[in-house]
Design goal:
The complex is a heterodimer of chains A (about 475) and B (about 500). Helices cover about 75% and strands about 0% of the residues of chain A. Chain A is mainly alpha-helical. Chain A has one domain. A two-stranded antiparallel ribbon of chain A has the order 1-2. In chain A, a hairpin with a 4-residue loop joins strand 1 and strand 2. The longest helix of chain A is centred in the middle third of the chain and has 32 residues. Chain B is mainly alpha-helical and about 500 residues long. Chain B is built from 22 helices and two strands. In chain B, helix 10 runs antiparallel to helix 11 and helix 14 packs antiparallel against helix 19. The longest helix of chain B is centred in the last third of the chain and has 35 residues. Classes of the chains: A mainly alpha (about 475), B mainly alpha (about 500).
Chain lengths: ~475, ~500
Amino acid sequence: MITLSLQSLVPAIAEIWLVVAVCLILLADSFAGARRRSLTPTLTLLALAVGAALTVRYGFTGAHVTLFDGMYVSDRLAVVLKLAGFLIVAVVLLYSRGYLERRGILRGEYYVLALTALLGIFVLISAGNLLTVYLGVELLALSVYAMVAFDRESGVAAESAMKYFVLGAIASGTLLYGMSLLYGLTGTLDLGLLAQRLETAGPGVILALAFVVAAVAFKLGAVPFHMWLPDVYEGAPTSVTLFIGTVPKIAYFALAFRLLAEGLAGTTAQWTQMLAPLAVLTLVVGNCVAIVQSNLKRMLAYSTIANVGFILLGFVAGTPAGYAAALYYVLVYVLTSLGSFGVILLAGSRGFEADRMDDYRGLSRRDPLLAGAMMMLMFSTAGVPPFVGFWAKLRIFQVLWETHHLWLVLIAAATSVVGAYYTLRVIKLMYFDEPVEAPAGEPAPGVRLVLGVNAALVLALGLIPGPLLDLCARLIH
Amino acid sequence: MHCCLLSILIWMPIAAGALILLLGDARPAVTRWLALIAALAALVLSLPLWSGFDVTGAAMQFPEKLPWIPRFSAWYALGVDGISMPLIVLTTFMTVPVVIAAWTVIEKRPAQYYAAFLIMEGLMVGVFSATDALLFYFFWEAMLIPMFLIIGVWGGPRRVYATLKFFLYTFLGSVFMLVALIYMYVKAGDYAIASFQALPLSLAEQRWIFAAFFLAFAVKVPMWPVHTWLPDAHVEAPTGGSVILAAIMLKMGGYGFLRFSLPITPDASRELDLVMIALSLIAVVYIGLVALMQQDMKKLIAYSSIAHMGFVTLGAFVIYAIVAATGSRVGAGMALDGAMVQMISHGLISGSLFLCVGVLYDRLHSRQIADYGGVVNVMPVFAVFMVLFALANTGLPGTSGFVGEFLVIIATFRASFWYAFFAAVTLVTGAAYTLWLVKRVVFGPVTSPRVAALKDLNPREFVVLGMLAVLVIGVGVWPAPLLRVMQPTIRHLVTLALASKL
């Protein structure tokens, strides 16, 4: 029996506000027309700020609150992830503005779709039921498909969107099928009950797990379910790539955590065994293939795949410490990707996408700030101290040692040396090569300041990693 | 002041480097002077480490301890003993000539150049003073970044190949050390080097950990056969880069063996001592012969460095053979003393030789031995320095090169005549390649009009080479102060290295 009172809806304030904001912005955008282009971006940023403020004020209602008969869960992890979501989307929108403008695609859809995608992410983060999980996954996925395609003129973008949509639909089907099997085995869709009943379920559960794990692997971009990722990253407008490369990763962490770590807690031994080979493949393919790319966006796509391998390793550990390590890794990864794609957006100018590796030759001479920021981000990606990427990798190594995964530690260590090469290549182009003739990047002092802060954070969190590590560990109990 | 001397030595140069980066190349004179002042200040500040050093015990001195990452029990813990303190002073000392040597020579982005070296200095002091393994690793890896940029931006024609090779080689070695450190952390519960040293480990565990350490440290030393990055890196690096690489970075490998391998995995070290001795002797004999055949001055000195560093690893691991052969520890301390003096001495001598080559290179833009000849006729003052450092490189008594090699060879005699015999071959090969280099470059008639047009040292270069010459002779004539600060720590190290953990 569902009982509703306004008071009981308070924990879902973030989602409710987002729905309201989406409707308002959609209306405002339609009425503002083509003349007042800056209205929608400003309103969206305002909506994000208000959403974050409301979440801070009313979100922390308790350690673990459920709504709608357990369909919706609000705990500290959810609140913190939602705050991170607000912040990341705000930074994404700040970075994208100039790019959209000069490509002539500064339209309201981008902003509205970003907000609906964020709504999907929030639903996923707070999912307490398989149905809610699916709802969140689809809301996010559909928004993102549309974002990839929203530059109508671009054939490449349309092709990427098609590919993404078809493969994504298969993954959704897989997820749904796995869920139906789980329901058949246990008779419940509730993640909490599922965990209890699975302990007594028969061997059929392995089959269900295989489908669920495959779907999660697809969403994260783990090998061999990664085919969509490089094409979409390369084909989508860079501002959309920036979006896809950052916020949804938080959602997919939540997906993996809610589904595997919480819902399927009884079968940890089984799904960690399925994830381990996926993680190894992902590490090897991601790092090795990234080396030979000539397009920076595509290279960053393979770098993403390589990073997903590390995130999966956190789950392979199968302990709260492991999930906390994966969470830390995801946050660090998002922070770093924000900056990397931000550099691509700022290095370009009208008619110049700045997405080929060669466009970065001698960037340190042309634009020292962008080159400096990119260097820090690349060293962080390679896992070299004093940058924060080092701690993310260290944490994964630690939890793997604690759970006695000797071979995984060694493979992860060896592949991260391979991975260092492709990041060094970017630095080599920027610092060691002679500058090429290229248009100057976007001046935009405000956005550059944001990028500077972004890069400085990568250094600061590397020097003092304690607080964020602590936060991640406390969020997962 | 004593409370945070080490922290100041780490962070002051880094802050100065950051400041120089911010100032940029707008006013080169200000940049240069700022860099020099920072380097001199670091040198002056490091002197109290020596004067205030307590030579009666082996405990860590000038300790600092702040919580860094409470969740891992990782501490920002610093301290120095008789092994690390001389190396820190060597680091702060060598940065000064590097800054002065760059004065008018570096025209391309000078601010970044000085900043890289100052940041590098701070990180290197951090490596030597960290008493927490995680902090050690943090500095150890961070140090790669400035060196990667120094070789890549200011290096020679094949700089990109050389610097990538340098980075990836050392990164590969270090990653496995990190894996070993984490393993011990999981067992010990914190990252303090002291608790790793006290951690009981089975022989199998020790073997794996030893192998991981070996990868990291042998690449840095470098030992044969993982030395191939060094000739490339040295040849392509700018003069300052070669100096720091040879004088300090190679020492980190030796320091690692003494600080980690010997005390943490004593039984594996004992078991594998023959391998280590053999690799060291190959470095001494074979690489010595390789050096003989070089046509490029920097490459010759690079190979000579590998051969000389062979004495460091020989001195470190021959202690087990000494104990096995004589049943007493008398010679062990002497071997380690020799290894340590050799590190300091090689830092001074190889640094000086690279600076000498830099002086010639700045004038003629060639490193080929064949392009020179008869330099003494036009550059007599330079020739004096070059010959002095060359003789020191051959181990002439009265120079620092003699003390370390002599101590190691004498100690090695206690282990086996043949070890000592092969080690002493260096007295022949070392003299051969160094003196032949001097003969071809410095002596003889002037071979080309370009050489005839060379100008002798300017005052700046004279100061740089002069200060190094004073120390090379000083340590050679009167090594007692150096040995005195090292001795208690070395004695303690012998105890740790010879105590079985099984």
